[in-house]
Design brief:
This protein is α+β, with helices and mostly antiparallel strands and 248 residues long. It contains six helices and nine strands. The chain has two domains: 120 residues, Phosphorylase Kinase, domain 1 (2-Layer Sandwich); 105 residues, Transferase(Phosphotransferase) domain 1 (Transferase(Phosphotransferase), domain 1), CATH 1.10.510.10.
Length: 248
């Protein structure tokens, strides 16, 4: 994917002449970019890293926030030239839009803040002492109630018009006994279908089926089971508003 939109002529000249190093910014450089972009007034430690991005704890005035920064070089994303700022900027924009849409639709996701280029801020989930743990690493006090809340949250996302295409115990946070859904980078909008509707809805259902399989495996540690087919049917009835997946 071309990245020309984010790069001025001086940067192109440095690329052509080999006078630019393709290395990820240091923590200090990332912090400066976050501050310069107005996403926070203070930047702290890195909370975690994924395949494409890092998340930092920051403070916006008196309020704790999380800032997600898409990496430009050390990523699993294929395509683009050595400088991937435009590619990563577009991915940050996509996730920020999905997060905003899910939040406005009432889904249990972090409240979005602001975005600039390949970074965006959002609500910090956790206490002042520690970030909320991922479901994968948490010990649930009431696993059955949490499971039911998680399934309801999946339906809530669908009601907001989004299917989480990378649903797993790594992308659900546990805070105050409730599930919070994160990392909507590859989420699928199912309320506004840009592709042939059947294609997008089928992709969404296949992704959700895989995610529910991951959750089934996780909750077996608590000797809990749920009817994944029933969940899929309820979600399908929500997102297939025009009956395109219904056999004639």
């Amino acid at each position: 994917m071309p990245n020309d939109g984010y790069l001025d002529s001086s940067v192109h000249w440095k690329v052509r002449t080999g006078q630019i190093e393709f290395a990820e910014p240091t923590h200090g450089e990332v912090a400066d970019a976050i501050l310069d972009g107005g996403l926070a007034t203070e930047v702290g430690q890195r909370l975690g890293s994924g395949k494409e991005a890092d998340v930092y704890l920051a403070r916006d005035g008196h309020r704790l926030v999380a800032v997600k920064v898409y990496r430009q070089y050390r990523t699993a994303h294929r395509g683009g030239r050595p400088i991937k700022l435009a590619t990563m900027g577009e991915r940050a924009l996509l996730e920020f839009d999905l997060l905003s849409y899910a939040y406005q639709g009432g889904a249990r996701v972090p409240k979005p803040g602001n975005r600039i280029e390949n970074m965006f801020s959002m609500q910090y989930i956790g206490s002042p002492d520690a970030a909320a743990p991922m479901l994968q690493k948490a010990t649930l006090e009431d696993p059955e109630s949490f499971l039911q809340a998680t399934l309801a949250g999946i339906e809530g996302l669908a009601e907001a018009g989004i299917v989480h295409s990378d649903l797993s115990p790594f992308n659900i946070l546990v805070h105050d006994g409730a599930p919070w859904f994160i990392d909507l980078a590859a989420g699928i909008r199912v309320d506004r279908l840009g592709w042939p509707p059947w294609v997008r809805l089928t992709q969404a259902m296949e992704s959700l089926r895989h995610g529910l399989t991951m959750l089934e495996r996780h909750f077996r540690r608590y000797d809990l089971e749920f009817d994944a087919a029933d969940v899929l049917n309820r979600v399908r009835s929500q997102i297939d508003r025009f009956g395109v997946m219904t056999p004639p």
